[in-house]
Specification:
The N and C termini lie close together (7 Å). The longest helix is centred in the C-terminal third of the chain and has 14 residues, at 151-164. It is built from eight helices and eight strands, in the order βαβαβαβαββαβαβαα. Strand 7, helix 6 and strand 8 (192-195) form a beta-alpha-beta unit. Helix 1 packs parallel to helix 8 (205-217) and helix 3 runs parallel beside helix 4. An eight-stranded parallel sheet has the order 1-8-7-6-5-4-3-2. The chain has helices at residues 16-25, 48-57, 71-81, 96-105, 151-164, 182-187, 197-200, 205-217; strands at 3-6, 30-36, 61-67, 85-89, 109-114, 132-136, 170-174, 192-195. The protein has a single domain (3-217), classed as TIM Barrel. 35% of the residues lie in helices and 20% in strands.
């Protein structure tokens, strides 16, 4: 089963509530929220107040991706703000097991995000404590980037790694996924597909979600 997770990073922030409702109408069940601190990645985006506001305005699953240097300090706060899923980067969290356990204990799904050039082996010890892995298929920090082609092979290897260990861990993918490659991505093992400009870059966001789901369904 796959899900489309529109990324509000590409939405019109002056009409955010409308943007959220439009993708829900198209069949999206997950809303992806990118949190950037200007340190781990160059950009600075949104934080806890916006997540709280989104929680009050929708019943969609809020998937919060922490692209920050000290995720362990804030992960539980995002759960308390209303996030249903929280992912932290393996590259910066030196106490990853503790952070993932804290997210779970707070009542949310815990995820590990991993950048394109980071080896999958860095996930080995963290996998039993994770509910999902967020595989970055672009380098994080900016929307609208092109999909890194080698990430398809990395996605397949990640799927095997999880399956070989008999773990119930979902795979999310983020970056450069659109109508031209979503079928390949789903076939390779992705279950949650983040889509920013592929959804909000279109005039009809609801229609864009439906088209992505139709293209992906070919491989399900």
């Amino acid at each position: 089963m796959f899900e489309i997770a529109p990324s509000i990073l590409s939405a019109d922030f002056t009409r955010l509530a409308e943007a959220i409702e439009s993708v829900k109408a198209g069949g999206a069940t997950v809303l992806h929220v990118d949190v950037m601190d200007g340190h781990f990645v160059p950009n600075i985006t949104i934080g806890l107040p916006v997540v709280k506001s989104i929680r009050r305005s929708t019943d969609m699953i809020i998937d919060t991706h922490l692209m920050i240097t000290e995720p362990g300090r804030y992960a539980v706060e995002f759960v308390e703000a209303g996030a249903d899923m929280v992912s932290v980067h393996v590259e910066v969290d030196h106490h990853l097991q503790r952070t993932l356990t804290a997210i779970r204990d707070a009542g949310a799904k815990a995820g590990v995000a991993i950048n394109p050039a980071t080896p999958l082996e860095t996930l080995t010890e963290a996998l039993p404590y994770a509910d999902f892995i967020l595989l970055m298929s672009v380098n994080p920090g900016f929307g609208g980037q092109k999909f890194v082609p080698t990430m398809l092979d990395k996605l397949r290897r990640l799927r095997r790694m999880i399956d070989d260990r008999g773990l119930d861990v979902r795979i999310e993918i983020d970056g450069g996924v659109g109508i031209n490659n979503i079928a390949e991505v789903v076939a390779a093992g992705a279950e949650i597909i983040v889509a920013g400009s592929a959804v909000y870059g279109r005039e009809d966001a609801a229609g864009a979600v439906r088209e992505l789901m139709e293209r992906a369904a070919v491989w399900v």
